[in-house]
Write a structure and sequence with these properties.
66 residues; 3 helices; 0% strand
Length: 66
């Protein structure tokens, strides 16, 4: 995966953030990732119930690697 380098202004802002602010950003990114993956699962499996989608999402996340 190729990621673009951060802009110096972004780096400066991240350095100025408090630990709580950084945690909030991390939680927001996790929330966005879960919502995106949930939408993909729903699109690929339109017959699944919400409970089944949540189970599939939980299973994927339990196997995720960083």
């Amino acid at each position: 995966m190729n990621l673009e380098p951060l802009h110096p202004v972004q780096i400066q802002r991240f350095r100025q953030m408090t630990p709580i602010e950084k945690w909030d950003v991390a939680l927001g990114l996790l929330r966005t990732a879960r919502e995106t993956r949930r939408a993909v699962l729903r699109g690929r499996n339109p017959n699944l119930t919400e409970t089944e989608i949540e189970r599939a999402l939980a299973k994927e996340l339990s196997c995720a690697r960083t």
